[in-house]
Write a structure and sequence with these properties.
Elements: E1 4-8, H1 12-15, H2 21-28, E2 38-42, H3 50-60, E3 66-69, H4 80-86, E4 89-92, H5 97-107, H6 109-118, E5 122-126, H7 128-131, E6 134-139, E7 148-151, E8 156-161, H8 169-178, E9 185-188, E10 192-197, E11 200-206, E12 213-219, E13 222-227
Parallel strand pairs: 1-5, 2-3, 2-4, 4-5, 6-8, 8-9
Antiparallel strand pairs: 1-10, 6-7, 9-12, 10-11, 12-13
């Protein structure tokens, strides 16, 4: 059975360092009582930023887990497959989604993560680390300063749009959906996250009361969106 995916539109330790509600929710999905989970941070989308890695450890060393990270940009001898086998939860940071996916595909990490997910492990992430799991995404990594569709890993058969409450995100998703550039999917506000078991959406989690996630579809040629409330949790 496939594992779980938690897609954060924004928030978590990197955007809300004083509010780790979404990060704690991810750790709550670990069901084993014999040991704490090994959480592997993947900072590829920022070129393995040392500062970003430091913020991850500052947050997760305070939580009930064993934090690790996998740097790929300057570590040609890294063995991504071995790192995937050794860890339980994979937390993907934000940044340039297109560049990140290129690096992953080049070293086989994309396939290793798919196999980990299919084996029941937990995948999660913010922004680039949220949309990478979808078939398509609305991303600012295709052309700097602009929003465009991007083909991603396809673990989840929809389109994902993070930071949905920021200017231009909703409008771009609607336009691309109406033109046939992307499939139906989800818009995810900052401070909101979608929780999937396999490819089934089971919960919406928020770290502030005015954050939402939306199901965005094309019906009779018109874009329609509805607030997702399936198993909502705060």
């Amino acid at each position: 059975m496939a594992g779980q995916i938690v897609a954060l539109g924004g928030g978590g330790f990197s955007m809300e360092p004083d509010n780790l509600a979404l990060d704690r929710y991810i750790l709550s999905l670990w069901r084993r009582s014999d040991r704490e989970p090994r959480v592997c941070f993947l900072p590829t989308a920022t070129g393995d930023s040392v500062e970003y890695i430091g913020r991850f450890y500052s947050a997760f060393e305070k939580l009930a887990c064993r934090p690790t990270h996998l740097a790929l940009m300057d570590s040609p001898t890294s063995d991504p497959a071995a790192a995937v086998l050794e860890n339980d939860i994979f937390y993907v940071g934000g940044g340039n989604t297109r560049d990140m996916l290129s690096v992953w595909r080049g070293c086989g990490l994309d396939q290793a993560l798919k196999e980990a997910w299919q084996a029941g492990k937990i995948l999660c992430g913010i922004s680039a680390g949220a949309i990478c799991w979808f078939e398509h995404a609305i991303s600012d990594s295709v052309v700097e300063g602009e929003l465009h569709p991007l083909k991603c890993l396809g673990f989840l058969p929809w389109t994902g749009c993070p930071h949905y409450d920021e200017p231009g995100r909703r409008e771009t998703f609607h336009r691309c959906l109406a033109s046939g550039g992307v499939s139906a999917g989800y818009g995810i506000d900052n401070s909101a996250a979608l929780h999937f078991e396999g490819s089934k959406l089971v919960a919406v989690v928020t770290s502030r009361p005015d954050a939402y996630a939306y199901h965005v579809v094309l019906t009779n040629g018109q874009v329609a969106e509805t607030v997702v409330r399936t198993g909502s949790k705060k």
